[in-house]
Design a protein that fits this description.
By secondary structure, this protein is mainly beta. It has one helix spanning about 80-89; strands spanning about 5, 10-15, 20-30, 35-40, 45-50, 55.
Length: about 90
């Protein structure tokens, strides 16, 4: 996995596929794999890009603008079928 940091745009680019707003959290590493930790601006939360897991559970507030739209995995890949299904609902 390649992680590129674009400080000017405050973006993290992972494997040339994922472009997310955020930063690498200094001096913090995943307890499971030792990877750097990334703060994801859109969801106001930190995650491990290698384990592809959030480091904390959603807050539980149904009106929270971050948690209510947060995907199960930080680097969730949506297929065309997923997008079409979402638009039908």
């Amino acid at each position: 996995m390649k992680i590129k940091i674009d400080d000017k745009k405050r973006q993290i680019i992972i494997d040339r596929y994922f472009r997310i707003g955020g930063v690498v959290v200094p001096n913090q590493y995943c307890e499971d794999c030792g990877s750097v930790i990334i703060y994801y601006d859109q969801y106001d939360n930190e995650f491990c890009p290698y384990c592809n897991k959030w480091l904390s559970a959603p807050c539980g507030d149904a009106s929270c603008t971050y948690c209510r739209v947060r995907p199960n995995e930080p680097l969730e890949i949506k297929t065309l079928a997923d997008t079409i299904h979402e638009n039908i609902e």
